[in-house]
Structures are given as structure tokens and as C-alpha cells.
Amino acid sequence: xxxxxxxxxxxxxxxxxxxxxxxxxxxxxxxxxxxxxxxxxxxxxxxxxxxxxxxxxxxxxxxxxxxxxxxxxxxxxxxxxxxxxxxxxxxxxxxxxxxxxxxxxxxxxxxxxxxxxxxxxxxxxxxxxxxxxxxxxxxxxxxxxxxxxxxxxxxxxxxxxxxxxxxxxxxxxxxxxxxxxxxxxxxxxxxxxxxxxxxxxxxxxxxxxxxxxxxxxxxxxxxxxxxx
Length: 228
Description:
Blueprint: E1 2-6, H1 10-22, E2 26-30, H2 33-39, E3 47-50, H3 59-68, E4 75-79, H4 84-92, E5 97-100, H5 105-119, E6 126-129, E7 132-135, E8 140-143, E9 146-148, H6 152-163, E10 168-169, H7 171-178, H8 189-200, E11 207-211, E12 215-219, H9 221-226
Helix pairs in contact: 2-3, 6-8
């Protein structure tokens, strides 16, 4: 999953970025509102953590412009402005959540997870497809209670596929959500992760089909049989 942090305090931005990367997210950072507005025209994120007091363009303007364009990415406002009017303005303009500085990092990470789950149509921290279960908080996968050992990137790929079970997920969609700016991804990186997942997951539990020219589809074997 890919997160954009828009924060002009370097130490805070760096600390947030490190923590979220350790939690398995791909993270990009900007310290300028206008740059964030431009980036959001072309890049897709699973969540945006947005400060309000930004250079060149205020965070509320960034939010308002994104929503006016039809952008539906979850936005968590993180700011030193803690007046009621600021919170009301942010929520009315389309923010999904609001936290005041200072804040507790575990709470912020929990709110980010909740926003991403809700945006994907899942209210629970546990994503289940048949006998395959994914704990998005503990970052664990299991089949009928038995643990399946996955790397951080394998877990992310599986999470994306499970949240969209029964729908085709494009290779570019997976790549965009696995890598931050500046990270080098090999030309066959996604294929490698899919291959590893297929080896680790019992084909009688869940299947990952390659839809030529479109991407990948995760489904239960019964669904695959019914589809012919």
C-alpha cells in the first residue's frame, strides 16, 4: 500500500516515513502544498497524511482541489491547528479523519489502517477469502488457522489481491502500491512475487490467475471452476 505524507517539518516527516515503511507501506514525502496538488493529479495513493500549514498552498486548498477533481483517496489531516472550526472545515471539505499534533504514533498507524480498509470496502482488520485469512494489523496470513510465512512485499501483494478478490488487478496497480519514488523495481518484480505466493498458497484454498494483458485475479477454486 502506498502513502503520501505532505508535511513541512523535516524531522516529523522523516520519522513518520520511517515508521510507516517499517510497517510495510511504500511512502512518498512532500513538504509543499502546491507540489502535492500537482502530484495528486497523476499519482494514485491508498492514503494521504496532510498537514495544513504548508508553503505555497494551504493543506485545506490541496484537499478541496483534490475532492473537486473527484479524487476519493482517504485523507488524514495531521496538524497543529486544533480549533473546532479548523476540524469542521477540514471534515466539511472532504477529510476522512483529523488528528492534532502532538500525537501518538500507534494511534496514527491504526487510523491509517482503518481508512485504507474502509476505502477498500472492508470494515474489519481481518480480510478473509474462503479459508485464507489476512490480519492487516499483525501482518500475518493463515489458512484454516495455520500460519503462512510471507515477506513484507508478498504480504502487500496478497493484501491488495484479497481486498479486490474476484476483480482483476493490473500489474501497474500492484507496482504503484509497492514502491516509493526512487525505488528501483526490476522488470519482472511483480511476476516474482506472484510466483512466490502461488508456491506458498495451497491451490485448493485460493488461486491467483493471470489474465493476459490485464493483470491478476484472486479467487477461490470453486469460483474458478464455475467460471470455466
